[in-house]
Amino acid sequence: MKPITREERVQIAKPIIFAKLDSKQKDFLDFVLSKYIETGVEELDQDKLPCLLELRYQSITDAAEELGGVERIKETFIDFQEYLYVKKAA
To answer: Side-chain half-sphere of 18: how many Cα atoms within 13 Å?
Structure first.
């Protein structure tokens, strides 16, 4: 089986990832996914989340206000990742 690129992986998973998100969450995950495509899987590390939030929103406080709180941000950031690596049934 031929490996797929990060960009292909994102395009396949995006409709599933975005299905239950609001527009602000989609905007944030679009940003995260662009960093993932650009840099690699290390962008999905939970330790990287504060840096991503500061890059996108200038502060974690602003991000929390925009996205519904720190717990919701963490949950969104962790939950979407399973869909990037789900194997499709043949």
So the answer is: 16
Q: What percent of the chain has pLDDT above 90?
A: 87
* Pair 75, 64: CB distance under 8 Å: no
Residue 89 confidence (pLDDT): 44
- Asked if 54 and 12 count as a contact pair (C-beta separation under 8 A), the reply is no
| Sign of the Cα pseudo-torsion (38, 33, 30, 72, in order) | negative
Cα-based distances in Å from 20 to 1, 15, 63, 75, 80: 30, 10, 19, 13, 10
Q: Minimal CA–CA distance to 54: which of 37, 31, 85, 33? A: 31
**Which of 42, 63, 43, 40 is CA-nearest to residue 53?**
63
Residue 30 pLDDT > 70: yes
